[in-house]
Write a structure and sequence with these properties.
Elements (H helix, E strand, L loop, with lengths): L2 E8 L15 E5 L2 E6 L3 E5 L4 H15 L1 E4 L9 E5 L10 E5 L2 E6 L2 E9 L23 E2 L4 H16 L5 E11 L6 H11 L4 E5 L2 E5 L2 E6 L2 E12 L4 H12 L2 H18 L3 E6 L4 E4 L3 E12 L5 H8 L7 E2 L1 H11 L10 E6 L4 E5 L3 E4 L4 E10 L5 H18 L2
Parallel strand pairs: 1-5
Antiparallel strand pairs: 1-9, 2-3, 2-12, 3-8, 4-7, 6-7, 6-20, 8-9, 10-11, 11-19, 11-23, 12-13, 13-22, 14-15, 14-21, 15-18, 16-18, 17-18, 20-21, 22-23
Helix pairs in contact: 1-6, 2-8
Length: about 400
């Protein structure tokens, strides 16, 4: 399909979320900047083990056939698709790329509107109009597929598999559910997440919402960066306790090993697609409102033929959300987790006509069905000396962003 995208500057927007569809928001926001999609000009669906490679190829063809008029030239201007992809090759969840009819965006004080339609379509999209955000739905998460006791038992089985040499690390997740009114304004949940976690990417694509701290890849003009998170601990109740928690994490052999697995898997996956790649030798501690993470930033120069989606296809799934070695960890996840992760821990983000874009891992997230059933997810990285009760506590911390948004 040949599309035409026209981006024009507009007066600065204070609150991008006010432009989003209350029931079907399309968002990618960080510290008030980002893009909001409205309507749907094109929807592409993918499935199976080649879903990301197929999406990269399909988008390359669409971009090549399309016309783009862009006088703003900022991240997120021009022809853009927003997407969310299933974690597993065998998932029944669709992976999607959605091209909105209208995009409202903002970057460093510059705001714009992009209108996207099929070439030759003489219709003009209605100008975007902000709407007040409704009352936040309230609900309480409850364990779904695994009770707390069942989860700790599964973690014990994962530790046994590690000690038997099947894997070095595996990420085990659990799910929790709640019900919200089907007509609830989902922007209210996104507003709460964006307010509490401003350094994360607050996203909403096709019913998946969340605030992810982990950038899978950010690409602009052939330069790309990624942030690897693995290893975490709760924040301390006092300043002294908080500093001690960060110091303990930074020197924890278990967490440093888990982090090293994640970083090495990312670097190995990137090398065929880049001209140069660098990463810091030691991780740093990243502070979030509810926990500390071990983090490593990776910088790279892309090969001329590579796009953001090509890098996503190469990276997913990272050791941070699957384990190491990857194939063995995925097999163990399928054996131990009694549910389909859907798009949890899969890539979510956006790509433009030049192949630039920003993709994060769908963490601290929930799926909201049309009937209002909300399913949240949280996982923990299991290694040989993992304690099941401690890993259960880690999942509780990771449920907190969604749980608190619902309170």
């Amino acid at each position: 399909m040949a599309l035409r995208a026209v981006t024009e500057p507009v007066a600065d927007h204070d609150d991008l979320l006010a432009f989003a569809d209350p029931r079907h928001p399309l968002t990618a926001l960080r510290r008030g900047d980002g893009i909001i999609g409205i309507g749907e000009t094109l929807r592409l669906t993918f499935s199976g083990p080649d879903r990301l490679r197929d999406a990269a190829a399909a988008w390359r063809a669409i971009a090549a056939a399309s016309e783009v008029v862009d006088t703003v030239h900022r991240p997120g201007t021009g022809l853009v698709a927003m997407g969310a992809f299933a974690f597993s090759d065998a998932s029944v969840a669709e992976s999607v790329l959605v091209v909105p009819s209208v995009i409202v965006g903002r970057h460093d004080g510059v705001s714009w509107v992009t209108r996207i339609a099929e070439q030759g379509d003489s219709g003009v999209a209605e100008p975007p109009v902000p709407r007040p955000i409704g009352e936040r739905p309230r609900a309480t998460l409850a364990a779904a597929s695994l009770s707390r006791e069942e989860f700790t038992a599964v973690v014990g089985r994962a530790v046994e598999a590690i000690r038997d040499g099947r894997v070095e690390k595996v990420v085990i997740a659990r799910d929790a559910t709640a019900s919200i009114p089907p007509d609830a304004d989902r922007r209210a949940l996104l507003h709460e997440l964006a307010d509490r976690y401003p350094d994360c990417v607050t996203f909403a694509v096709d019913g998946l919402i969340g605030a992810s701290p982990e950038t899978l890849v950010s690409v602009h003009g052939g330069e790309a960066s990624a942030r690897v998170l693995a290893g975490s601990t709760a924040r301390g109740a006092s300043t002294a306790d908080d500093a001690a928690a960060a110091a303990q994490l930074a020197t924890s052999a278990k967490d440093l090993d888990e982090h090293a697995f994640a970083v090495h898997s990312v670097l190995d996956a990137l090398r065929p697609h880049v001209r140069a790649v660098t990463a810091s030798e030691l991780p740093f501690t990243l502070k979030l409102p509810n926990l500390w993470h071990l983090a490593t930033d990776v910088e790279m120069q892309l090969a001329p033929s590579s796009s953001a989606l090509d890098i996503v296809a190469a990276l997913h799934p990272t050791a941070a959300v699957a384990g190491s070695p990857t194939d063995a960890a995925l097999a163990l996840i399928a054996e131990l987790e009694p549910f389909d992760r859907g798009r949890y821990a899969g890539p979510v983000g956006w790509i433009d006509h030049d192949g630039d874009g920003e993709w994060v891992i769908a963490l601290r997230c929930a799926r909201i069905d049309d009937d209002g059933l909300l399913t949240a997810y949280a996982g923990a990285g299991i290694v040989a000396d993992s304690d099941p009760d401690s890993e259960l506590a880690e999942t509780r911390m990771k449920f907190r962003p969604i749980a608190e948004a619902l309170r």
